Amino acid sequence: MPVFRVCLRILQKNLPVISIYFVIFIAISIVMTVVMGPAETGGFSREKIDLAFFAGEETPLVAGLRKALAAQVNFVPLTDETEKLQEALFYRKVHYILRVPDGFTASFLRGGGPLLLQRTSIPDSASALYIDLRIDRYLEILRLYVNTLPELELQEQVAFALDDLSLETVVMLAAPEREPGAGGRLQFYFNFLAYTILFVIILGMSSVFLTFNGLDLKRRNLCSPLGARAISLQCYLACAAFALASWLLLVLISLLFGFREIAGPAAWFYILNALVFAACAAGLAYLIGNLTRNGEVVNAAANIVALGSSFLGGVFVPQELLGENVLKIASFTPTYWYVRANAAVAALTDFNLQTLSDYFAALVVQTGFALAFVIIALVVVKRRQTAS
Questions:
Q1: What is the pLDDT of residues 51-101, one digit of tens each?
Q2: pLDDT tens profile 229-238
Q3: Rounded alpha-carbon distances, angstroms, from residue 364 to 276, 341, 356
Q4: Confidence category of residue 197, pLDDT binned at 50, 70, 90
Q5: CA-to-CA distance for 120 and 128, rounded, in angstroms?
Q6: Are the CB atoms for 335 and 278 separated by under 8 Å?
Q7: DSSP letters along 34-94, please?
């Protein structure tokens, strides 16, 4: 098949430019890996806060306050000098300074008075808020025991308050189990795949049609022993082989970076969606390659179509963040439906015909776009042949 081999040589000539976009896709994948990091599944671990504690008296109330705070703070020994304390707070050696004035216990037992705890913390610090809540909770529970059980010694009241404060409630977040590969990084990889597929296939296939649509080459082909139908068929086969090779290589790169998430069935649906989108990109490339005979126009069209549809369709900016009017415009592009199909797969935990209805609907729309592009291109080719 001589025409098939010529088409492959044309594609090989454009390979350096095409390979740049493969490198771009790999770079984006690496960046996404670093930014997102590994999927962590684990619990919450409490972090203790550095606190300086100064007491003007030693009473059971003060001792209980220390015990109440011990679960949340690290007590840092500091010299009780204003300048050194301010320096420690500024350089974050401590995040909180608590001072219990002399006579605070007697004032507390009387029901409150002018003596208050002196608290100094980093402004607008969330950690300081947790310490404040802990202190207030301890004093509130202790006051409850002081008011309701006045016959008990203060040491016993403090012990009861600490027992109540030590009670914890176990909280469990119930979430459905997700199949490996549902959502996560694999969805982002295949979303970014849309930009590269569009540009690479449009640029590669259009170069073939630009060459064969040249007037001189057309006239020479009319004199060749091969018929026009055979020449066109070999061109189509070469372009289809190029589109499939591009799709396969880009999918393998995606699976390489998302290898932790390819065990589940979701990965196969991502791959099928990418294949349908590659067919759609091939139809668009066939249309663009037959609309013009200028290589610069093809490059510009490839950039505009790939970048424009990627921004509008949700490749670079999630569809959830796009406005309603933007999404309405984007729905007239196959990229929008490609990203939507990926999102439908990412949201699933159970894969069956009913749950995959939105996914298959998006595939049907993409197939419709591919057929529409091919039909329009055939009309353009027919009208040109009639005009000539």
A1: 999 998 899 999 999 999 888 888 989 888 888 888 888 888 888 999 998
A2: 676 677 778 7
A3: 9, 10, 12
A4: confident
A5: 9
A6: no
A7: HHH-S----------EEEEEEESS--HHHHHHHHHHHTTEEE------HHHHHHHHHTTS-
Task: Report d(CA 80, CA 67) in Å as an integer.
Answer: 21
Task: Return the CATH architecture of domain 49-165.
Answer: 3-Layer(aba) Sandwich (3.40)
In which residue ranges of the chain is CATH 3.40.1710.10 found?
A: 49-165
> Do residues 243 and 283 make contact, with C-beta atoms less than 8 angstroms apart?
no
Contacts of 204 (CB under 8 A, 6+ apart): 11, 14, 18, 239, 242, 243, 246, 285
> Residue 223: how many CA atoms within 13 Å on its side-chain side?
4
Q: What is the pLDDT of residue 180?
A: 41
| Sole residue written with tokens 């947790």 | 130
- pLDDT given at position 14: 74
pLDDT on residue 364: 92
Lowest-confidence pick of 62-71, 200-209, 274-283: 200-209
Average pLDDT of every residue of the chain: 79
Helices assigned H by DSSP within 223-265: 228-257
Of 42, 69, 39, nearest to 54 by C-alpha is 69
Parallel/antiparallel/unpaired status of strands 73-75 and 96-100: unpaired
Q: Are 214 and 309 in contact (CB under 8 A)?
A: no
The residue ranges of DSSP E strands in the chain, in sequence order, are 49-55, 73-75, 96-100, 118-121
Q: pLDDT at position 366, please?
A: 92
Q: Which residue has the higher pLDDT, 178 or 313?
A: 313
Contact of 253 with 29, CB cutoff 8 Å: yes
- For residue 111 the two structure tokens come to 């029901």
CA dist., res. 133 & res. 146, Å (int): 20
